[in-house]
């Protein structure tokens, strides 16, 4: 029986189309480098997890890339906004029999395998698990069934998303895991372990 599934939302790494807010400070080429490093980190963190893993690309499915075809199932996002795309991804996996599904993005150098494992464990006794982000959003959402209100009427990409989501979940048992820093701006980057490591190595991003 299918039990746990991890959904990983990614953007196809293209110059000028990823980390656009970060690029305003460091330029498109460096922003693309940061994003490809973020993807590599997310791959390394998730590849050994014992759940089934699904990479959902934003534009097109790519074979023979860093997401090994023998470790990750590959699908394409669909929907008019982020909420619709996330809901559709959850629906696909619940429909084929998964009992617990977690979605993450690919914006966190601070993410570890333990965060995902802890979220799956908390879903044993909770309806929903959230991984809050320092910017007021969330980097992880875990569900045992689709809760439609979670995916609508949100100001995606703003500091109100977590509060709006928690308001919609007042009648559900919700657990949270550690708050982490996801990287959208240069200020986010400066606070990340990645930036600190790069500064120690060569003083550059």
Automatic annotation (TrEMBL):
Gene3D superfamilies, sorted? Spore Coat Polysaccharide Biosynthesis Protein SpsA, Chain A
Q: Which InterPro entries does the record cross-reference, listed alphabetically?
A: Nucleotide-diphossugar_trans, Trfase_1_rSAM/seldom-assoc
Mind telling me what this protein is named?
Answer: TIGR04282 family arsenosugar biosynthesis glycosyltransferase
Name the domain of life.
Bacteria
One Pfam match: DUF2064
Transmembrane residues, as ranges? none
Q: Which taxonomic lineage is given here?
A: Bacteria, Pseudomonadati, Bacteroidota, Flavobacteriia, Flavobacteriales
């Amino acid at each position: 029986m299918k039990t746990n599934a991890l959904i990983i939302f990614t953007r196809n790494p293209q110059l000028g189309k990823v980390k656009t807010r970060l690029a305003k400070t460091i330029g498109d080429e460096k922003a693309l480098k940061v994003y490809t490093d973020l993807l590599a980190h997310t791959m390394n963190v998730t590849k050994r997890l014992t759940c089934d893993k699904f990479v959902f690309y934003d534009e097109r499915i790519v074979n023979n890339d860093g997401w090994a075809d023998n470790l990750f199932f590959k699908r394409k996002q669909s929907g008019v906004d982020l909420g619709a795309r996330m809901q559709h991804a959850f629906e696909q996996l619940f429909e084929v029999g998964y009992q617990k599904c977690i979605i993450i993005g690919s914006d966190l150098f601070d993410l570890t395998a333990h965060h995902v494992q802890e979220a799956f464990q908390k879903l044993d006794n909770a309806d929903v698990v959230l991984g809050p982000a320092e910017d007021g959003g969330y980097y992880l959402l875990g569900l045992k069934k689709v809760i439609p209100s979670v995916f609508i009427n949100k100001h995606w990409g703003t500091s109100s998303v977590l509060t709006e989501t928690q308001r919609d979940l007042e009648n559900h048992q919700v657990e949270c895991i550690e708050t982490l820093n996801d990287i959208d701006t240069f200020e986010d980057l400066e606070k990340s372990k990645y930036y600190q490591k790069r500064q120690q190595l060569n003083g550059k991003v």
